[in-house]
Amino acid sequence: MELFLKADTWLALLTLCFLEIVLGIDNIIFISIVSNKLPEEQRQRARNTGLFLAMFVRIGFLLGITWIIGFKEPLFSVKDIVPDFLITSLGFHADHMFSGRDLILGFGGLFLIAKSTMEINHEMEGDGIEKEGKKSSVPTMAGTIVQIILLDIIFSFDSILTAVGIVDRDKVIIMILAVIVSIGVMMFFSGTISRFIQRHPSMEVLALGFLILIGFMLFLESLGVAVPKGYIYFAVAFSLLIEFFNIRVVSKRKANPVKLNKPFSELEAEAALLSKKGEEVQYSDDPKYPIGKFISKESYTFKELQQYIEQIDLFPYQLQKTVADLSDTQLDTPYREGGWTVRQLVHHLSDSHLNAYIRMKWALTEETPTIKAYNQTEWAKTPDTRLGVEYPLALVKSLHQKWVGLLKQLLPEQMKKEYIHPDSGKHIRLDQMTANYAWHGEHHLAHIKSLRKRMSW
Length: 457
What we know:
Layout: H1 7-23, H2 25-35, H3 40-63, H4 65-69, E1 74-77, H5 78-81, H6 84-90, E2 97-99, H7 100-124, H8 141-166, H9 172-199, H10 201-222, H11 229-253, H12 266-275, H13 302-323, H14 328-331, H15 342-365, H16 376-379, H17 390-407, H18 412-415, E3 418-420, E4 427-429, H19 430-455
Antiparallel strand pairs: 1-2, 3-4
């Protein structure tokens, strides 16, 4: 206790706490992104459990100070593992020595680059209505905790060596207290940061870009190339400041609802369809995807969303006109070889869009819920799909009136709400979903229209 009666002890403790917290910012960003892949009810527990266990790993490192310092001792040189002709041709420094610290930073940096690149790809690629074939793996609580611990080791390695350099080795208790304080701060703020990143997808992409930058810096550091961390942290802070301003500007410009009005009446729908009558749609030679596959975008303009909502609004009338004069024999004709019949397609549309409406209501009323998927292939075989098409047509018509009535009153920030698909683990925003189902209706209409054209019906 005599140690804590000295002023320099408290100064060293405050300095170490500050360094641990500042150097832990990138750690919090990574933890936020990884934990956001879990269902809402598991995220806080995963973050706190991972950080709590990581705290004991850090304390273990501090108790083994002599062993940690040994990680800075050279293990081998470039010429020990790289042939002379490669050294000459690639211009390597043959005498550069690698230590245990270099290996940890190097592999950690490469892991960060790979992980962040995969996450950016995950955010940018589109989401289909339902996945056919094999399912993607869903993140687990244990896997997320392991990632948090491993990345904490990489991120904390330099801060531990810094602590050893600032405080005498016989004052390990000060270092341990600094670690406990910094982990406590991370636990306290990680939830807030996670929710903020979740609400602003552009911030998540920006954060992943930072992690790629930090991973590259760690890799360069392992090769003996010193990169001043001040430059990195200034770039991060400046980019965050600009993004904060951007979020404020966008939220002010889009303070109005998407559009506050009612769905089309039958007369209005007829008039809208007549105005589009001259627009000839060209179908591809692919019978499965006559209008091409759906491609999701990172963001949608107000005008684009208006067009997608109008497509969803007009869809029941287009579907009715497309199948109204078909006989039972024609309705039971597959739209392509090995595909569903027209009757099954119409029943599928009512099933699929009913699920979509419920998913949207879930996303609007719960915090990023994990929705219930359905097997669309098996649903298309149930006995009700052999009923007359007048039943699914009536359901689609009334369903779309409710759905469009909801869509036309959503605020821009509500369009950014998300749900998680259990098969892929992906987060799907409501604006992406709106675009997807506008495409989905046109996609199946094209199946029926292209069949009629081929069969001269």
